[in-house]
Amino acid sequence: MKKNIFVCPSLLFLFLGVSTLISCGGTAQQPTDVELLGSIENAFVNVAKRSTPAIVSITSFRRSENPRFRMQEGSGFIFREDGHILTNEHVIRDSTVIRVRLLNESGYEAELVGADPNTDIAVLKIDAPEELPVLPLANSEAVQVGQFAIAIGNPFQLNHTVTIGTVSGKGRSLLQDVGIVRYQDFIQTDAWINVGNSGGPLLNIHGEVIGINSLIRRPDNTPATSAVRAGAGFAISSNLAEKIGTQLIANGRIIRGFLGIGMEEVPQGVRVLRVWRDMPAHLSGLQRDDIIIRYNGRKVTNSDEFKMWIADSQVGKASKITVLRNGHERLFNVTITEMPALQAGRPVAIDSVAWRRLGLSVRKLQKGDYERYTYLTDEDRGVIVDMVEENSPIPRGSLIIAVNGRNINSVQELEALLQKQDRELKELILDVKSSHGTEKITMQLRP
User: Fold this and answer.
1) Topology at the third CATH level for domain 257-338
2) Which end of the chain is more exposed for a tag (fewer CB within 10 A), N or C?
3) Where are the domains of the chain?
């Protein structure tokens, strides 16, 4: 035992001595302050060099009586080799022509693949003869507050401006649901962004996109001109952008589930502030001041996450919602419907013949509908009811298959048929398919 006691200190001193030598040797090889700063500087330079070829300037033109507002400028970036570009929806909103310019000054007229006002994301497509560079998308869940952030865009027509800062915050929600329902997951940054940066990428030190620069927020009392705005910048997280972008490419638009309530967060979950008439929550029996605590078995902790769960639910599918009412738990089966066009930020054809004569607004059946509507099959044909007047016998989200026995395959066919109907005719029989099954519904015609 005594021998072992003397050996261990000897080994310990030997190890400490070697460690000291290694440490001293390592100290001698440490870079100088200038070399360390140069290494960091080179990292930023390399990110800028690699990334800028995939970043584009966007100019969109819209119809307007005021010439000052006919042109909108912004940024974007190529994220697929076939020419698909991610940008902000507000950059191309109401545009009739969209032009894209690359770093090499080549210009293209872009096709609008799809846009989603609820998340402020749009996808464009250009056809270029040469191979196009792309920016990879990072996993924004792995982004950490305090890491470097690099913004590249076209503020004030200063193409490919590079600014550097840090990630100042994550999971920010800034915009209220005014008219449309907002789905938000913003990354906050102090990297300088301004007018024209919208749609451009926010990058990490590896040159991967962690977000799409979208907006600037400043206190009302902060001095700023109408053009230059000082304040925190916010970028749509790359995970949300990838999810929406992929759906827009596949379907041209986003089909979201809808519950039909106003809400606020409370410690127990989400409180119901308002219940919209004839919407799923109202039809299932939910009431104002109910506190939603679980959705399909998952605990509800915040309104943003809950809205995402509803949005991702299949249309026509029954979901289980557990609420606290007067201190007692109650379970409701709610059949989720599609988000109305107005809340989704889509235009509604209120001046159509279908609206004037039937009180219905319809849209064409799209391939994404087969995935989101539980009651549709690949063989179904017809038009989807997008909006209805109050007390309409046809549920919103129904598929109109035929009118008076004649199959309807497009909005144009329905409009033409209604236009030709005799003004003296009082009613039509519609074959309709919905979550209630397939049925014949008699609709009164207006003159």
Assistant:
1) Pdz3 Domain (2.30.42)
2) N
3) 36-218+230-251, 257-338, 353-444
